[in-house]
Design brief:
Blueprint: H1 2-10, H2 19-28, H3 35-44, H4 49-60, H5 68-76, H6 87-98, E1 119-121, E2 132-133, E3 137-139, E4 151-157, E5 160-165, H7 166-172, E6 174-179, E7 182-189, E8 194-199, E9 211-218, E10 221-226, E11 232-234, E12 239-242, E13 253-255, E14 258-261, H8 262-268, E15 273-275, H9 292-295, E16 316-322, E17 325-330, E18 339-344, E19 347-353, E20 360-364, E21 371-372, E22 378-381, E23 384-388, E24 392-394, E25 400-404, E26 406-410, H10 411-417, E27 422-423
Parallel strand pairs: 2-6, 5-15, 17-27
Antiparallel strand pairs: 1-9, 3-15, 4-5, 4-14, 6-7, 7-8, 8-13, 9-10, 10-11, 11-12, 16-17, 16-26, 18-19, 19-20, 20-25, 21-22, 22-23, 23-24, 24-25
Length: 429
C-alpha cells in the first residue's frame, strides 16, 4: 500500500513530467486498487491519456473508451473493483488542490456509505453555487419580471403560498426558507432535473438543518452539505452519505412541491409570495439563461451509468414515493393537464397533471375516480365536487384525501437511484 500511496500522491504533482514515473509505478503494481486513482487522473492529465488508458486496459482487461467519463461509467458498473485502502486520502489531496475548503468533507478516515471513487468534482468551489437563505419575497403583483409561462416551484404550508422561479433557482440550486413557520430546504439538482422540498427538522436534531452546495457530485447528482456538521447528503434521497452523520439514521422528510407555470400557480394562489429578483447576487436571471445548453441536449454532463432504457436518459418523469414503494410516470403522459389513476403498493393514486405539462400533483384516491371540474381547483367524483388544495383533496362533506410527495426528475436519475424502478404508463388510467 505504501508504494501505491506514494505513487498516487506523486502523480498529483504540478511539476512537468514528474507524473510519468508515478503513473508507470502505479500501473506496474498490477493492483486493481489503483484503477480508481487512474480514472481520476485521466481527467486531470489529458497529456498522459494514452499512458493512463493503456494502463487501465491492462489492469481491467476492458476497453471502456478514451475519456475519463467513459471509465467513470465503467467503474460504476464494476463495484467489485475496490480502491486501495489509502484512496480517501488521495482523493482528499486531489480535491484540496481544486479548493482547500473541500478538506471539510473528505479526509483519510471519513465515514461513508457510498463509493468514494464515484465522487467527482462538479466544476465549482464549495458554495460556488450560492444558496439563498431566507430570501426576500414579494407580492405576486410586484413580480413584474416574470412571464406567464415562466416555470416555478410552488409550495404552500399552513396557508403560506410561495413561488420559486426556476430562472432564479437554476443559479442557486438551494433555498433555505421558512414556509408557514416550517423550516424547509428546496434542493434543486439541475443535472438530474429534480427539485425536492425537504423538511429541515429531524428527530433529535436542533437547530433545523440548512444546506449548501458542496461542489461535488455522485452519479451526476449534487452532494449537498449540512452546515452544522459538514456531512455530505445525497440530494435525491435526503440521506447523509459521507461524513459525521453517516450511519446515524437521520433522514429528511420530503414535502409536497409542484413544478408549474407562474400563470397556473398564481391563478390558484393569488395571494402567493414570490422570490424577489434582487437576491443579493449578480446573475443574469433571464428566462432560459442558466444551463440552457445542458437542458437542450440529450447528453449528460457528468458520469452516470444508464442501464434502464425504457425511456431516454433525459426524459422527464413525475415520481411518487410512499412508504411501501416508489413509482414514476413519463411527464408527457400528463400533457394538457391529464388526470391518471394508478396504484402504488396498497395505495390508490390520482395524479393530476399541470395544464402546461410542467409537472403534476399526487393524492390518495381512496378508490374514487376523479375528473376535471368546472374550476381549475375542482375535481368531480361520483357526481360530487372536490376541491384540490396543496395539502389534500377536500370533499363536500369534509372528507380529506392527503397529498403525496412527488417531483419531476430526469429518468436516468430516477432509474439510477431506484433499481428496478416501476414505470407507470398512460394506459393505467
Amino acid at each position: 500500500m505504501a508504494t501505491i500511496d506514494r505513487a498516487a500522491r506523486q502523480a498529483l504533482s504540478v511539476v512537468p513530467r514528474e507524473n510519468e514515473p508515478a503513473l508507470d509505478a502505479l500501473i506496474a503494481t498490477q493492483d486493481p486498487g489503483v484503477v480508481a486513482v487512474l480514472i481520476q487522473l485521466l481527467r486531470w492529465l489529458p497529456e498522459e491519456r494514452e499512458r493512463i488508458v493503456g494502463g487501465l486496459e491492462r489492469l481491467t482487461l476492458a476497453h471502456a473508451g478514451a475519456q475519463w467519463f467513459d471509465w467513470a461509467v465503467w467503474q460504476q458498473d464494476h463495484p467489485e473493483i475496490h480502491p486501495y485502502p489509502g484512496y480517501a486520502g488521495f482523493l482528499a489531496d486531489l480535491l484540496v488542490i481544486l479548493d482547500p475548503a473541500f478538506a471539510r468533507f473528505i479526509g483519510a478516515d471519513v465515514p461513508h456509505e457510498i463509493r468514494l471513487e464515484e465522487i467527482f468534482w462538479g466544476g465549482v468551489a464549495v458554495d460556488g453555487i450560492p444558496a439563498l437563505d431566507n430570501p426576500r419575497m414579494i407580492a405576486a403583483e410586484a413580480a413584474t419580471y416574470l412571464n406567464r409561462d415562466d416555470p416555478v416551484f410552488g409550495v404552500e404550508i399552513a396557508g403560506d403560498a410561495r413561488a420559486y422561479p426556476l430562472r432564479i433557482v437554476n443559479w442557486h440550486e438551494m433555498v433555505n426558507d421558512f414556509v408557514g413557520g416550517v423550516p424547509v430546504s428546496l434542493a434543486y439538482c439541475t443535472l438530474c432535473g429534480a427539485g425536492i422540498l425537504f423538511d429541515g427538522r429531524a428527530a433529535g436534531r436542533e437547530p433545523p438543518f440548512t444546506f449548501g452546495t458542496s461542489g461535488l457530485l455522485y452519479r451526476s447528482n449534487k452532494l449537498m452539505y449540512d452546515r452544522p456538521t459538514g456531512s455530505l447528503w445525497n440530494q435525491f434521497t435526503g440521506r447523509p452519505v459521507v461524513g459525521p452523520l453517516t450511519g446515524s439514521g437521520v433522514a429528511l422528510t420530503i414535502l409536497p412541491l409542484v413544478r408549474t407555470s407562474w400563470e397556473s400557480w398564481r391563478r390558484l394562489h393569488p395571494a402567493t409570495k414570490v422570490l424577489a429578483l434582487d437576491t443579493g447576487f449578480l446573475r443574469d436571471y433571464g428566462p432560459g439563461v442558466a444551463y440552457h445548453d445542458y437542458f437542450s441536449s440529450p447528453r449528460l454532463m457528468f458520469p452516470a451509468a444508464v442501464k434502464d432504457e425504457r425511456l431516454r436518459q433525459k426524459d422527464l418523469v413525475f415520481g411518487v414515493r410512499v412508504p411501501n414503494g416508489v413509482k414514476a410516470w413519463p411527464l408527457d403522459a400528463f400533457a394538457g393537464g391529464r388526470i391518471l389513476h394508478d396504484q402504488l403498493g396498497f395505495t390508490d393514486l390520482v395524479l393530476i397533471g399541470e395544464p402546461d405539462g410542467a409537472g403534476a400533483r399526487a393524492y390518495e384516491a381512496g378508490g374514487r375516480h376523479f375528473e376535471r371540474g368546472a374550476a381549475p381547483d375542482e375535481l368531480v367524483a361520483d357526481g360530487a365536487t372536490w376541491r384540490m388544495s396543496e395539502a389534500a383533496l377536500i370533499g363536500p362533506d369534509g372528507t380529506s384525501l392527503p397529498r403525496l410527495p412527488g417531483h419531476v426528475a430526469y429518468w436516468f436519475a430516477w432509474a439510477g437511484y431506484f433499481d428496478g424502478a416501476i414505470l407507470g404508463m398512460p394506459g393505467t388510467e
